[in-house]
Each structure stands twice: as C-alpha cells, then as structure tokens.
Amino acid sequence: MKIAIIGSGLIGRSWSMLFAAFGYHVSLFDVDSSQLKDALRFIEEELQQLEGSGMLHGSLPAAEQMKFITGHSDLTECVKEAQYIQVILPDMCINGVLSFEDFVHMIL
Chain-wide mean pLDDT for the chain? Predict the structure, then answer.
C-alpha cells in the first residue's frame, strides 16, 4: 500500500516513520526541495537512534524501514497510485496567515 504525505515538517516526518515501520510505502512531498532533503536525512538519523535505543516501532530494522520512504518535489508523482493521502497543513494555514486555498495553489 502506498501512502502519500503532503508536508515534510515534524508531523509529516513522524507519520512517515510510523507508516514505514509497518511496511507501508510512503511518498513524502514538500514544495521546498531543501526541506525535503533535510527531512529525509532527519528521518534516517531518527530511525537509527530509535533502533539503537530499542524504541524502534515495527519488526523491520531501521535501514529497511528507510527503504519504504521516498521524497518527491512533484505533487503529481507523490500522489500517483497512493491509496491514502494525508495532508499536513503548515502553521501558516492554521494560524490564519495563509488560506487553505492559497496553500493549495502554492503546492500545485
């Protein structure tokens, strides 16, 4: 099963790790390619730390879980063939700085 997560901030990274722990293929999207790159690096480091402390979710080792997570800066590619799409709204939307409509236009 493929899961698309729109937004690679703290919440998007956390959900990505949890879904990958149970063998779901995760497609992580962000409009900011440097943010996406940092998110993937953070996820890999966090999975290794969790494994080292014995707190890693699921039965797969950290390196195997990381293989289930891919990053995309193209929204169409990210959601292609996804059975579930999870949108993580940025704080700007929640705090009223940016409307949801403007957010959608920003990522499309």
Answer: 89
